[in-house]
Design a protein that fits this description.
The complex is a heterodimer of chains A (232) and B (382).
Chain A lengths: L1 E6 L7 H16 L5 E6 H14 L4 H11 L3 E9 L2 E2 L1 H8 L10 E8 L7 H12 L3 E2 L4 E4 L8 H26 L19 E3 L5 E3 L3 E3 L2 E3 L2 H7 L3
Parallel strand pairs in A: 1-2, 1-3, 3-5, 5-6, 5-7
Antiparallel strand pairs in A: 3-4, 8-9, 10-11
Chain B lengths: L1 E6 L15 H17 L4 E4 L12 H11 L4 E4 L2 E2 L5 H14 L5 E5 L6 H4 L7 H15 L5 E3 L7 E4 L12 E5 L4 H10 L2 E4 L6 H17 L10 E9 L3 H14 L9 H7 L3 E3 L1 H15 L4 E5 L7 H24 L12 H17 L5 H11 L1
Parallel strand pairs in B: 1-2, 1-12, 2-3, 4-5, 5-8, 8-9, 9-10, 10-11, 10-12
Antiparallel strand pairs in B: 6-7
Helix pairs in contact in B: 1-2, 1-11, 2-3, 3-5, 6-7, 10-11
Classes of the chains: A alpha/beta (232), B alpha/beta (382).
Amino acid sequence: MRLVVVSAGLSVPSSTRLLADRLSAAVVRRAAGPVDVRVVELRDLAVEIAHRFTNGFAGPALAAAQEAVAGADGLIVVTPVFSASYSGLFKSFFDVLDRDALDGTPVLIAATGGSARHSLVLEHALRPLFAHLRAVVVPTGVYAASEDWGAEGLAERVERAAGELARWMGAVGAAGAAAVAVPGRAGEAGDAGTAGDGEVAGDGGVARPVVAEESAGFTVVPFAERLAALRP
Amino acid sequence: MQFGIFTVGDVTPDPTTGRAPTEHERIKAMVAIARKAEEVGLDVFASGEHHNPPFVPSSPTTMLGYIAARTERLILSTSTTLITTNDPVKIAEDFAMLQHLADGRVDLMLGRGNTGPVYPWFGQDIRQGINLAVENYALLHRLWREDVVDWEGRFRTPLQGFTSTPRPLDGVPPFVWHGSIRSPEIAEQAAYYGDGFFHNNIFWPADHTRRMVELYRARYAHYGHGTPEQAVVGLGGHVFMRRNSQDAVREFRPYFDNAPVYGHGPSLEEFSTQTPLTVGTPEQVIEKTLGFREYAGDYQRQLFLVDHAGLPLKTVLEQIDMLGEEVVPVLREEFAKGRPAGVPDAPTHAGLVAAAGAAGAAGSSAASGSSAASGAQEVTAV
């Protein structure tokens, strides 16, 4: 399984990365099978993210990070709290991600701050963001204030959140394997219409086209179906 | 293969002087650019279409009609004609009229337009962009091919017994390119009709262009119009040239750094590495442009952007001189080398008339044509 960790810490070393590492280690321990962990440090991508806004396309390092995130079976995202919310760099990374990249991906949300006063940032900022991106946010979020690093409670929250993410990653991984057989998915270039992947009965028994064909790495709806859908 | 110029028609202050041309000056400059393109032996001039400042070309067929009268050979085209917010009936009429006036030296590139507010100004909604492109073109396609059209759709009032006039010159509609940077739906549309696909690659990495063109070619073959290599592809280019590469970089840098589209972002050097931008000598432009074939295959039309970001007209005309005298003759020769026999020529009115004549003869002498011909019939019937 592929676990991707997105860390928006800016200093080296950073407490944000420290929290990210504790979370990912806990997920690896609790996962049912081997986990391939990849860490995306947004600090290293800051310039390419800014250029992505002005250019419209991702530079090579950002494109690789986006590909890793889109292909992840589970995601850990950790941001420092800046001005009562996630950092601008953290938000910017998700602003330039493909709209569907996190569809159904289990996500563990976490944040670091100087004091406990901003701990609800997880609930009022991060959770709605990832709900919008149609990710599955696990119930436990982990907030670490400076004082938490020497206090009781953080380790338990890390373990609980990691356990939740590990379970979801297993569940989604199994469902993903089954999804191959779902009509309207997959299908190789040129063979659409030969298999039973043409139509499924929708509401009221009306057949509606759901076929998408794969070509050159794109999923395309055959033009005739798109045109037919517009007929009054 | 055809070579030409495409212009956005922006009014941008020259960053080195702070002075912006007036709209009148910019419009006249676009005409001067088109005439220069013909003078130096280029094949195509294409104008953008915009309905908001700082752009001037809101009425491309008016401009192209004027240029048609001032030129002899040049093919007049667009980059792009908005298939979303223009009434397809008016597009059919305007371009058929232009086609007659220009004796067939006309084609057009359809695009959606990405400026949100323009849509409601014309009674439309950008969220329907793809659907507008699909429905409006389906109607436009019929208006040029059927003398009397009954039609009903989602986005415009129905037509009963409508005949779009004038009918296309010699019964052959202008060739259509579908332009898109990011939307596979448009590559699919171009492939479905067997029309051309123009990928304006100038701000994009090669790998993205390769994927879009590959999709179009695969789908073109899927719809029975020919092999993937027979699909009709156009690409953009973005150049600034001087005899000495360092002079080119020094002179162009302030324009690059302040350009409305990509300025204040990556450096000229980074941008040149990641996109088709070439700032250097004519030889460097030749080398980079020849490289497009490696990821897009043998293609039919190459348009260069040379007149944006506030560059003075004099400088732009010098760029076109260099293209015509030093770059394009070499590109014509080099692109011809190793070009497989099956790769079609760039579309011209004469070529389309000849093809229509051949198809008509084949249709009357045989009940069923080749797979390509039956594919075309299937498309026409939609």
